[in-house]
Amino acid sequence: MTVRNGVRWGCWVAVLWLTGPWLWVGGGAAADSSPAAPRPIQLEKLTYEVVTLDDAGREVRRERKWNWGFREALGNGVTLEMLLIPGGEFVMGDGIDTVPFPFPCHKVRVKAFFLGRYEVTERQWREVAGWGRVERGLPRRPGAWLPFGSRHDEWPVRRVTWEESMEFCERLRRATGRGYRLPSEAEWEYACRAGTTTAFHFGNSINHCVARFRLRGCGRGAYGEGEFEARPAAVGSHGVANEWGLADMHGNVEEWCEDIEHLGYEGAPTDGRAWVEIVRPCNERKRISRGGSWLSLAIQCRSAGRGSAYSNRREKDTGLRVAMDVPVGLALPPRP
Q1: pTM higher than 0.85, yes or no?
Q2: What is the dihedral of CA 254, 258, 263, 268, to 10 degrees?
């Protein structure tokens, strides 16, 4: 073999190593177009710890709480934990993102729904990627060739497009007969706040003991306490949640929402539904993401912080958290 041929083969090996996760796209056979008959939901009490921080980022209170939820079996011992988000009204936005487009604070009423306790993990994604496709195939390991050991099963999946995230939800819907989907932007912020009005559900500050975000140039409301690593954390590994039990709502990975990117809140729905109508100014090719990531400044991780990306683009710090409609006829128990 000549040196030139050796270099050529070496290049091909490198390409195959980098693109290996994409060579086999999950879900070869088409899924049945009709949803399965849903199994009864067995609600149970899921417990968690809620932490409150003062304005200096110091922990001032830690409480043990619980919320109603259920576990969706995906197969092979993989489950998806869903928590009940009670209906209610809140003020969306915080008035910080106002230039160059207006994002006025406005009241939104949200119906009860379920939301994933954690971001979708590599393991959960891999399981669903093996199911029958609806409109498109799904990569089994979308983040497998990223650095920092990104094959970790309990790490949040990332480098998934909005379109693939919608496919993931549609596969769940058809396999379970339940209304799985991406949350709307309003639902996401409502669930993140969980009744709070501060910048973060922890208070007006965060630190690295409770969230994974960018260390340097942290910006307003961030304090460098706790260990920081320049990569995402396994879901729930900080051991804390908000009032309704949701973990990692600030930082870790950005989370896709269903909404089109509108450049302002003027004309936004006030009933909690996703804003998918093309109302100028907007960019119909982009979709909203929320929560910030391990690469984000603290100010970008606040409850009202917004992000966006093209719906077919793979961002190394963007994943998803699934929502689900409350099934018709399900009797909602009293709130904790």
Answers
A1: yes
A2: -130
